[in-house]
Amino acid sequence: LQNSPTKSERVVPKTEKKEQSKRTKKIKEDRTESSLVSSSSEYNRVQELYPSVTYSYRGKSMTVKEYLDKLKDAENGVATLDKARNTALNKVQEWKSKCQEATVRVTSLEEKSETDKGRIEGLEKALEDAQSKLEMEDYQKGVKETLRKKITNLQCQLTGAHGRIEQLEGELQMMMKRTNGFIQPPARFPGAKRVKQNNIDEDDEDKMRDKEKNRVEKDQKLEEECTAAKAEVKQLRSVNFNMTQEMAKMRAGHLEWMKSSGTNANNERIEADRKRRELEDECARLQQLLYLQSHTLVDKMMQNCPDWNESASPYGLLPSSYPTPPFYPPIPFIPPPPPPPPSSTSPIPPPPPSISPSPPPPS
């Protein structure tokens, strides 16, 4: 007994406390029920003995039975309220669980939003890179277009330079022919040899060497551009040749169609050939007449102007035999066809116009 703990020192566990509270609650409920039963039986007995006895409850007079009914209604209401309270507690628990689930879901959504934010930043960066690439491509396209225009301009200049070179070569050959070859063509690079002097510094030599190097590089670039231009000209010539062949094929096809188009086309072709022959005959006659008149005019000039020499003649010195110039071949005189017999209805054709002798061209 001395070693046993006192009432204040003894530690009661939680499970034992719960069992004690349950036992005390049950004892109280049993006592209440027994008191209610005893009171109801007593009230019933009193009501049987004294039916006119009434009780006042909250300012109202009622019999024992009415009081007991009120009591039962109150107990039923308490039970209903307990049930409603339990239902509300269950709903509260359910809402708490739903709130926890919603919190977990919100947390997951926040994490997902962070991930999406990182992805959006990456996509924005990729979009900026793509835009910069597009801008660079546009710039490169502009540079290519500018270079293409410059190349076209250089090709045009090169074509003009080639034409000018050919023109100058032709003029040079004409001058050489007139002077019997006394004029020699100049060197392509006059003064290309550089004489080294003693008073030139090394810096000046380096500068001159750099200039020479730059000139060589420019010449190489010009040669490359000339090669490219020649290739393009060759391609254009091939295209022109193909187009010429196509046109020849089309003309041949047109001629075949004309041949196979019927008698009208054949008659028109015969009439055109006849007119062409007439025009050729008339042209030959006029050319012969012009040739004879020119020689007559030259003869008159030689008679009237004894100082007239070969410088005034486009053909040089003319001997007495009057040889045929190389560009006026001798053509036999072909008389024109006789005119048709005049009829009473056809008008008289006008006389041919007189051909005046043309003066000699100036030297």
From TrEMBL:
Signal peptide (from-to): none
Gene3D superfamilies: 1.10.287.1490
Coiled-coil regions listed in the entry: 64-171
UniProt keyword annotations, A-Z: Coiled coil
Keyword NADP: no
Residue ranges of the region described as Disordered: 1-42, 183-220, 328-363
Protein name as annotated: Uncharacterized protein
Organism of this sequence: Pristionchus fissidentatus
